[in-house]
Specification:
The chain is α/β, with parallel strands linked by helices and 362 residues long. It has two domains: 223 residues, Alpha-Beta Complex (Quinone Oxidoreductase, Chain A, domain 1); 130 residues, NAD(P)-binding Rossmann-like Domain (Rossmann fold, 3-Layer(aba) Sandwich), CATH 3.40.50. It is built from eleven helices and 17 strands. The strands form four sheets. Strands 3, 4, 5, 8, 9, 16 and 17 form a seven-stranded mixed sheet that branches. A six-stranded parallel sheet has the order 12-11-10-13-14-15, covered by helices on one side. A two-stranded antiparallel ribbon has the order 1-2. Helix 4 packs across helix 5 and helix 4 packs across helix 10. It comes from Sinomonas atrocyanea. Its cofactor is Zn(2+). Keywords: Metal-binding, Oxidoreductase, Zinc. InterPro entries: ADH-like_C, ADH-like_N, ADH_Zn_CS, CAD-like, ER, GroES-like_sf, NAD(P)-bd_dom_sf.
């Protein structure tokens, strides 16, 4: 059941709607504030999760500030959620009370389109339901993980292996799968040379995962100030992209380039770093359009691609992979009262490498 500290009405399946402590953005230009939000009644296939930790993703900032389109406020963000199951609906078969679980960037999909049937719910043809700021199947607006509890249908709840501490597992629900999926799809592994552009919340996970897959890993960053970190995380090489000689020295080198930055870059220059048949995959989402010369692709049979998180099956595979190799994210744990400060620090690239909120402080 919900803890008394959450100031909730006692939940009974199909009877009441709980109110939980949370942090929300009142508007696009306003700081997040402490508040309460309502969670839906626990349905037959739902899982009630007591949230232990919630990660801060750059996407949270873009979304609550309206960078990616208008939002309905107040809005509680957060799509990196780790916690413990405290109650399940009477038809739930995948989870039991006490399970260590996680919720990522989506909480529902149509379940019957060709992409959903293939396990690619993130590309649901009817649109997946985002963990916050989206219209759920019952018509309500979803509210995210900056809160004490959440109710999610069992099919979108992940099992967090015992080998992963919940706090460092939390960012894996977004940053982990966002980098694992393209590296997995494009075959990062022994004998492959992988470059990771940017060493931030996404990039540091890209380095860890590519290294664990057995690839030769190079970090391409604006400067060398994080070189020591990059090598510690598993990179074999580290180069500054502000140095023009980097693009000359590394021309034609890489099988895969994973672009994790959300800022405009010279795509043609980076495509020049690919070996013949190589692929550059973007997971960062800059608001500006990026130009590419067709000959940058034609000359060498190269691929320019994009990737968005991963399906539920692949996300579970990623969690198991990270547990098997003994790593989670590098985090800075903060109380809820520091969320707004953390947002500013994320924008200033002043975090190594992911903020995680202690949900006990909500």
């Amino acid at each position: 059941m919900f803890a008394a500290s959450s100031k909730l009405n006692t939940l009974r399946i199909g009877v009441t709607m709980p109110t939980v402590n949370a942090y929300a953005a009142p508007g696009a230009a306003e700081p997040l504030v402490k508040t309460t939000i309502e969670r839906r009644e626990l349905g037959p296939h739902d899982v009630l999760i007591e949230i232990k930790y919630a990660g801060i993703c750059h996407s949270d900032i873009h979304t609550v500030r309206g960078d990616w389109g208008p939002q309905q406020y107040p809005l509680t963000p957060g799509h990196e959620i780790a916690g413990v199951v405290t109650e399940v609906g009477n038809e739930v078969t995948k989870h039991t009370v006490g399970d260590r679980v996680g919720v990522g960037c989506m909480v529902n999909s149509c379940g019957h389109c060709v992409n959903c049937e293939k396990g690619n719910e993130q590309y649901c043809l009817e649109g997946n339901v985002g963990t916050y700021g989206a219209v759920d199947r019952d018509g309500t607006i979803t509210q995210g993980g900056y809160s004490t509890h959440v109710v999610v249908t069992e099919d979108f709840v992940l099992r967090i292996p015992d080998g992963l501490d919940l706090d460092v597992a939390t960012p894996l629900l977004c940053a982990g799968i966002t980098t694992y999926s393209p590296l997995n799809r494009w075959g990062a592994g022994p004998g492959k040379k992988v470059a990771v552009v940017g060493l931030g919340g996404l990039g540091h996970m890209g380095v860890k995962i590519a290294h664990a897959m057995g690839a030769e890993v190079t970090v391409l960053s604006q400067s060398l100030k994080k070189k020591e970190d990059g090598l510690r995380l598993g990179a074999d090489h580290y180069y500054a992209t502000s140095d023009p000689e980097t693009f000359e020295k590394l021309a034609g080198t890489f099988d895969v380039i994973l672009n994790t930055v959300s800022a405009p870059i010279d795509l043609n220059a980076y495509l020049g770093l690919l070996a013949a048949g190589g692929a550059m995959v973007s997971v960062g989402a800059p608001p500006e359009s990026l130009a590419v010369n067709a000959f940058s692709l034609i000359g060498g049979g190269k691929t320019l691609a994009g990737s968005m998180i991963g399906g539920i099956r692949e996300t579970q595979e990623m969690l198991d992979f990270c547990a098997e190799h003994g790593f989670g994210a590098d985090i800075e744990l903060i109380p809820a009262e520091q969320i707004n400060e953390a947002y500013e620090r994320v924008l200033a690239s002043d975090v190594r490498y992911r903020f995680v909120i202690d949900a006990a402080t909500f």
